[in-house]
Amino acid sequence: MQPIRIAIVGVGxxxxxxxxxxxxxNPAFKLAAAASRHAAVACVANFPTIEALLASxxxxxxxxxxxxxxxxxxxxxxxxxxxxxVLLEKPPxxxxxxxxxLVALAAAADRTLYQTWHSxxxxxxxxxxxxxxxxxxxxxxxxxxxxxxRWHPGQTWIWQxxxxxxxxxxxxxxxxxxxxxxxxxxxxxxxxxxxxxCEAPIAAEIELTGASGVAVTVELDFRHTGTQTxxxxxxxxxxxxxxxxxxxxxxxxxxxxxxxxxxxxxEYESIYHRFAELVASGASEVDAxxxxxxxxxxxxxxxxxxxxxxxxxx
Length: 314
Description:
The protein has 314 residues and is an alpha/beta fold. It has nine helices and 15 strands. Helix 7 packs across helix 9. The longest helix has 15 residues, at 267-281. The termini are far apart.
């Protein structure tokens, strides 16, 4: 079977660190091209825009869209219009209506649309979901604190409208919550802390409520230095379950649970394995619930102005 000829659209940190290595390491794919205004990929055809890529003579079957989220909808729309399968880096779009339209366009074009949530592929997430099916959830606390200068160095888009701010990593936590908790989660209250020189929040305190009344509290902070913290602590009727390291490490009653022997090594390796399956079967996979939660948080939130943030990398 011929490999899927894929192009990267947006050659930034996430593309270089995760997407390109995952594509190169997967025999189901051949990296054929890249489109980026400010960077290039060695040994493939490079173009300044997705429009130039799609108008070229380079043959591709699919695109992986790794641009800032403000550009996702238009890039995906153009690719689907030209009959390409589309993989979207998270966050998917800047509105739910945009994502709904892409789903409709993919169905009309009979192409695969895969909205990725890389944190769902972390080793501890699937076994945690299985455990929760056997237990009654009492309460949940999420702590997602990281250094924005480390993970988004020099990236101004994340501070602009539609860039999500601290909800960019926060949506990773939401993607795990909506995967492991079967009941609907509702945004009940939020405080968003917005620097005076930014349009998006740098920190957040969020209250979610499960349909059964389960309380979920969420702390997000982009100003955190030192040890990066991505944990979900769940209290159940039979004891504690803890997901740490962004869902990679699972503990039950403080006892470490080893990953299943057959799981893939990395989150993005797993993503591209799944994308190949979807393309082969002619299916799409889009779950809008994490984006819905972000949208609802913005709707219920109180915005609090805080001091200006120095975006320069130390």
